[in-house]
Write a structure and sequence with these properties.
The chain is of the alpha+beta class. Helices cover about 45% and strands about 20% of the residues. The protein folds into two domains: about 5-190, Sandwich (Jelly Rolls), CATH 2.60.120.10; about 195-310, Arc Repressor Mutant, subunit A (Orthogonal Bundle). It has helices at about 10-20, 60-65, 125, 145-160, 165-185, 195-210, 220-225, 230-235, 245-260, 270-275, 280-295, 295-310, 320-325; strands at about 25-30, 35-40, 45-50, 55-60, 70-80, 80-85, 90-95, 100, 105-110, 115-120, 140. Helix 4 (about 145-160) packs antiparallel against helix 5.
């Protein structure tokens, strides 16, 4: 997308329309506006460059409830800066820094003229490799960190190679790219064998939970037996996630949210969806859902279906932002 290729009086509205599946743009803060996007849909990843004049962007609770997108967005700033507020953080991202956004968490930004390399990674691909998957919203990774520098170089090379990559190439590159992102987000490991072993078990346990989250018989005893560890060890391993039961409940709430906003499941009542994921008490489910996502299950569905109907005709499948809205 290049707004310079369309009449000047249509550029801002075209940009807002293009970004609408994932971003609201409440203000354009520059005189002559321009925006350019050069993006690739590569296997399950989306990467490319974005450059634009000054603007404010927002991803609100209503937007999150509407689109159901569930991915991490990483932006490496090649030029310019961005102020970002969200997830209890207030950061200024400068040239060379990396901004990490969790697209299930509300965020507001204010940027000057900038250019960035962006990559979108589905949560289901990256989350199993992260120590704390919910702790990365509006996070700043400093340009001075060696792992950030390494990842920045990789993303630049990936974008430069984009026109020549085959489908087989990007499929082969996906796993190493996700691993490199996870390493940068997690930071460097200490040399202690015990800590490394604990972390390895934790990641394996979380992968097992994710693969079996639909089994309502999933329990501490079953998982402990699967990995040959005691209940006490499993409790200790999962303590950083709020405990085994809390973690499983949160992952099932995410599955409920995805089904509540899915138009294909509009014939299912919220109660039926909740029961499918083990929430048999409607009142308890509603309270847990509200705490996790900031809206009630009913509000989430109303917002999602209302906004989806209003926007369906405005976007085509080849729009770069529409790709992002489908990353689950």
């Amino acid at each position: 997308m290049d707004t310079d290729l369309i009449p000047e009086n249509q550029r801002i509205s075209a940009w807002r329309e293009a970004a609408a599946p994932v971003w609201d743009i409440p203000a354009i803060t520059s005189g002559r506006f321009y925006a350019k996007v050069d993006a690739y849909q590569a296997h399950e990843l989306i990467f490319g460059t974005i450059e634009s004049s000054s603007q404010k962007t927002e991803r609100s609770t209503a937007q999150i409830a509407s689109d159901g997108s569930d991915f991490y967005l990483l932006q490496v700033y090649l030029r310019g800066s961005r102020e970002v507020v969200g997830s209890g953080r207030d950061n200024l991202i400068n040239q060379g820094d990396m901004l990490v956004l969790d697209m299930t968490q509300a965020v507001k930004t204010n940027c000057g003229e900038y250019k960035s390399i962006d990559i979108a990674v589905p949560r289901r691909l990256l989350e199993p490799h992260l120590h704390d998957p919910d702790a990365h919203g509006a996070r700043k990774l400093s340009a001075s960190r060696p792992l950030v520098s390494l990842l920045r170089s990789h993303l630049i090379a990936l974008h430069q190679s984009g026109p020549d990559l085959t489908c087989q190439d990007v499929a082969a590159l996906q796993a190493p790219t996700v691993a490199m992102i996870a390493t940068a987000l997690n930071g460097e490991f200490g040399p202690e064998n015990t800590a490394a072993m604990t972390e390895g078990i934790r990641l394996a346990v979380r992968r097992h939970i994710e693969q079996n989250i639909g089994d309502l018989r999933l329990s501490v005893d079953q998982v402990a037996a699967q990995f040959g560890i005691s209940r006490a060890t499993l409790y200790r391993i999962m303590d950083t996630k709020g405990g085994f039961v809390t973690y499983v409940r949160l992952r099932r709430l995410h599955r409920c949210r995805a089904e509540i906003v899915d138009p294909k499941l509009s014939h299912k009542t919220i109660g039926q969806i909740a029961e499918r994921w083990g929430f048999n008490n409607p009142s308890t489910f509603s309270i847990s859902f509200q705490r996790a996502f900031g809206v009630s299950p009913r509000e989430c569905r109303q917002i999602a279906f209302g906004l989806t109907l209003a926007r369906t005709s405005a976007h085509k499948d080849h729009d770069w932002s529409h790709w992002l809205s489908k990353v689950k």
